[in-house]
Amino acid sequence: MTVSNDIDTAYGVMIYVEKGEQITLELFTEGRRLAEQLSQPLSALFVGKNPPLKDAQLYGVDSLHHIPATDEEERDYSETSKSVARVLQRLSPSIFLMGATKKGRVLAPLVAARLLAGITADCTEFSLDEKNNLIQIRPALGGNIMAHIVSTETRPQCATVRPGTFKAVFAGKPTKTEIIIEKEHITMSETVTKIDEIEKSTSENDTQIELSRVVVAIGAGIKSEAEIGEIRKFATEIGAEIASSRELVEKGLMPHGRQVGQSGKTIAPDLYIAIGISGAIQHLVGMRDSEFIIAINSDKDAPIHKESDISIVGVWQEVLSELLPIIKERLSK
Amino acid sequence: MIEIITTIKQVPDTSKIRVDKESGTLIRKGVPAVLNPYCEWAVEAAVSLKEQTPSTITALTMGPPSAEDILIRAMALGADNGILLTDRKFAGSDCRATAYILAQAIKFSAPNADIIITGEEAIDGDTAQVPAELSVFLDMPFIPYVITLESADDGAVTLIHERENRRERIRVKTPFVCSITTGFRTRRLLPLTETIRALSTPITRLSATEIACDEKMIGLKGSPTRVIKIENVVTTRGGKTFHWENRNERKAVIESLV
């Protein structure tokens, strides 16, 4: 274990780069905003082969630090975190941000713990206090509250950010990004031996519901495979992806890759149709930025009705069969 | 004999929390405290490994004395022992402090533990940070997103876990820390005999001093992150509600969509 950096000397904003991921560009943009506000530089840290220099230039990154690694090396989270922690200790950034991706949610706390630094998961907003501490805002208690969190005594201030929270915007003009190769290597541990790959995730699980313009989401009001089949047919007819609240995933009726909410994905399609979803806040945080929300629920007191543009109290089978042609027509325009 | 530790957490059932319509504040009263579902899966994973390979399972939690309830649940599910870390000095611990305390407890009471099985995250915090941080404090490798632990032999465990977009079967040398991800599992109803057995198994209680915690690393004062403000989340959209049974309202909603 290493030790946290000195508060007085920590300087600059650093972004961990996941190549090919939109979240990296989103973090460059938000990092640039914070760096400008602090009048400090924006840097990036990349582990792997071929650092994405062009993105760094377009998004205003001043320096791009590169830890060369093979794909295999880079996949070992525990070992990667050791190298990253050493680099962070040397460079001593004040703020270190990673995407709250499958990888980031593991690597970030590994790195932070090695530096004994504070870390906040799944942030949705940042600001700075009068002493330039980073105020990290995140949903908690199943999304029922937003917590404002600071780490005043440790550096770097580490946080992960939910993909889709910030918009990626180019810097005004391309930056002359300096590439710096870090004298680090990742020691492959002999702990893990791969045996084989199981079933490629099916298209069912693999889908990117966050890319779909129209989403039909189902919740605890849907009771069986047969009912899901009916709704899937409806979704296909109107060209929508099907998503789910937590209950059906826990029951094993829907794959986790389609879960929307605090512990699933955050999405904002043009049209979100919620069927049999009560609207616990833990679900609402994952969909409330949708452009237009239609809710169908037989329970008139379900909270989802308040979070919708149009809500219908009724039996979903009856409602869907009548709305199908109307929505289809409307979407085809 | 494999020595398994499962770290578990008692949480409020967040899906049952409602917002008071008048004051906009959270109604926590009457919200039941439960064993975090991910932790329940962690215990189940330990039990399924034990069915393959002779093992002892110790469930470990930090919390107030009432957190004994989840240790009893874990033992009814198949854990052999329960340890409760309870001390006022632990109050206000953030992820790092919690991970440190759990690591101290494991070093103290199970220095030769082979596998530490955690749940991916807790439904009240949803941070997923403690398991990774715990692995650092124990200086063990961390294997996240584990679906099943298949078997154990010769100082290694064969397990299936998720990578970014696929599943792999890997062999991992012990000791290590892993976290169990959402699986397609349903909560089991337990036979009464198991609950009775669990209720009659003594639970070990340990304090900060007993596990030799550095006081600078625990509780509110030992936590690098601090919550400075809490905002209630206000729902804002407030569109129109139509009752399908009512013919006029049904007509209105259809017209509004056409």
Describe how the helices and strands are arranged.
The complex is a heterodimer of chains A (333) and B (258).
Chain A: E1 13-16, H1 22-38, E2 42-48, H2 53-58, E3 63-68, H3 71-74, H4 77-91, E4 95-99, H5 104-114, E5 119-123, E6 125-128, E7 134-140, E8 145-150, E9 157-161, E10 178-181, E11 192-200, H6 203-206, E12 214-218, H7 225-237, E13 241-244, H8 246-250, E14 271-275, H9 281-284, E15 292-297, E16 310-313, H10 316-332
Parallel strand pairs in A: 1-2, 1-4, 2-3, 3-10, 4-9, 5-9, 12-13, 12-14, 14-15, 15-16
Antiparallel strand pairs in A: 6-7, 7-8
Helix pairs in contact in A: 4-5
Chain B: E1 2-8, E2 10-12, E3 18-19, E4 26-27, E5 33-35, H1 37-52, E6 55-62, H2 68-77, E7 81-85, H3 95-109, E8 115-119, H4 130-137, E9 142-153, E10 156-162, E11 166-173, E12 176-180, H5 192-199, E13 203-206, E14 226-232, E15 240-243, H6 247-257
Parallel strand pairs in B: 1-6, 1-8, 6-7, 7-13, 8-12, 9-12
Antiparallel strand pairs in B: 2-5, 3-4, 9-10, 10-11
Helix pairs in contact in B: 2-5, 3-4
Features:
heterodimer, A: 333 residues, alpha/beta, five-stranded parallel β-sheet, B: 258 residues, Rossmann fold, nine-stranded mixed β-sheet, two-stranded antiparallel sheet, 6 helices, globular
Describe the structure.
The complex is a heterodimer of chains A (333) and B (258). Chain A is of the alpha/beta class and 333 residues long. Chain A has ten helices and 16 strands. In chain A, the strands form three sheets. A seven-stranded parallel sheet of chain A has the order 5-9-4-1-2-3-10, with helices on both faces. In chain A, strand 6 (125-128) and strand 7 form a beta hairpin. The longest helix of chain A is centred in the N-terminal third of the chain and has 17 residues, at 22-38. The model of chain A has no long low-confidence stretch (mean pLDDT 90). Chain B has 258 residues and is an alpha/beta fold. Chain B has one domain: HUPs (Rossmann fold), CATH 3.40.50.620. Helix content of chain B is 26%, strand content 32%. Chain B has helices spanning 37-52, 68-77, 95-109, 130-137, 192-199, 247-257; strands at 2-8, 10-12, 18-19, 26-27, 33-35, 55-62, 81-85, 115-119, 142-153, 156-162, 166-173, 176-180, 203-206, 226-232, 240-243. In chain B, a hairpin with a 2-residue loop joins strand 9 (142-153) and strand 10 (156-162). The longest helix of chain B has 16 residues, at 37-52. Chain B starts with a strand and ends with a helix. Chains A and B meet through helix 4, helix 5, strand 5, strand 7 and strand 8 of A and strand 3, helix 3, helix 4, strand 9 and strand 10 of B.
